[in-house]
Design brief:
Strand content: 15-25%
Oligomer: single chain
Largest sheet: 12 strands, mixed
Shape: elongated
Length: 342
């Protein structure tokens, strides 16, 4: 049983020196991805105990070591544990650090922890391991890493339900469209997956929400997303969250950029047509139809995308105030567009 833990078959993340096999002597640090308790944003005692137990197993197997650092995260917050052996186990628990800010202390600490030893995600089958080289982006629901595999990104999700939804959507698109068509249309592709991790292709530069402004790109560079959404709908899938933050930009050899429609975590089949009130883009992107909690339609994906284009260079209203959001779009003249695509 100890072998299973130390070989990475049990932990969510296992860190070991690059180019070294996963033998007992090579396991360095271990981490767990668990959903925090509601409201308190704290972790269950059992999850903390499980994480610390992994550190104890490493210390027992690697007699030359006297300390192991482990971490527990929900991809939004992170807690570190230092476990030492000096005749008995001594456990120190850090405070919780925020990971979402670009320069947050928690993000810097986790980056430092992973700087020379990279996390490996055991995908199914467990013979495949992927190194996470660098944190690309942290959001409230997931963390993105650069992968050691060429042209691939590693996505760790807080909630397994989001992983399941994305796997289902991307698997359907692969069966209906084929990888070649998905690639040409600019739709993210699924390479491997486990319960809370996805290996996705291609590896893009970053989200359109940031790069369009920083590079001073015209909004027209995102026009191909309309064709991507149409193909997705034809294949029987709704995206439901086509915001600029979920559209990645890929640099072409000729100096242009190619948009990649990504993040199908709130996607669903056309047959389900789940209302946006359950999962999807925030209310400031909703059409009148979606704001009434009605079944999702292809037009609603287009509504979200067009509002996202406007939001790149303009401030959107508070997403929690649905009436104010609807009034805002009336004032900026979106009602004419809404009528056009009803």
């Amino acid at each position: 049983k100890g072998n299973n833990y130390l070989l990475g078959f049990k932990p969510d993340i296992i860190i070991y020196p690059a180019c070294v096999g996963l033998g007992r002597a090579s396991v360095d640090r271990i981490g767990e991805i668990k959903k925090a308790k509601d409201k308190k944003k704290d972790f269950e005692g059992a999850h903390k105990g499980q994480t610390v137990h992994y550190a104890m197993l490493i210390l027992r197997a690697q007699r030359s070591r006297d300390e192991v650092t482990v971490f527990l995260t929900d991809c939004h917050m992170v807690t570190f544990f230092s476990v030492r052996w000096e005749a008995r186990f001594t456990i120190r628990e850090s405070i919780q650090y925020d990971l979402t800010g670009a320069d947050s202390l928690g993000r810097r600490l986790l980056s430092a922890l992973l700087a020379s030893k990279h996390p490996t995600i055991p995908f199914s089958p467990f013979t495949t391991h992927v190194l996470g080289k660098e944190i690309i982006q942290c959001t409230a629901s997931s963390t993105l890493f650069k992968s050691s595999l060429p042209d691939a990104v590693l996505k760790l999700c807080i909630d397994p339900k989001l992983t399941t939804a994305e796997v289902s959507a991307l698997t359907t698109l692969k069966c209906k469209l084929g990888e070649g068509t998905m690639s040409s249309l600019g739709i993210i592709r699924l390479a491997l997956h486990s319960r809370q991790a996805l290996l996705l292709k291609p590896l893009a530069k970053g989200p359109a929400s940031i790069l369009v402004k920083s590079r001073k790109l015209p909004l027209s560079c995102l026009a191909p997303v309309v064709a991507s959404l149409k193909a997705v709908h034809t294949a029987g899938v709704y995206h439901r969250d086509a915001r600029a933050s979920n559209i990645l930009l890929l640099d072409n050899d000729d100096g242009t950029v190619k948009p990649i429609l990504a993040d199908f975590g709130c996607g669903c089949s056309v047959d389900e047509a789940i209302p946006l009130t359950e999962c999807g883009a925030p209310a400031c992107y909703w059409s009148h139809h979606a704001s009434e909690g009605r079944a999702f339609r292809p037009q609603d994906d287009l509504h979200i995308f067009v509002r996202a284009l406007y939001g790149i260079n303009n401030t959107l209203p508070n997403a929690n105030d649905v009436p104010a959001c609807l009034q805002f779009w009336e004032q900026v003249g979106m009602s004419a567009f809404d009528t056009l695509i009803q």
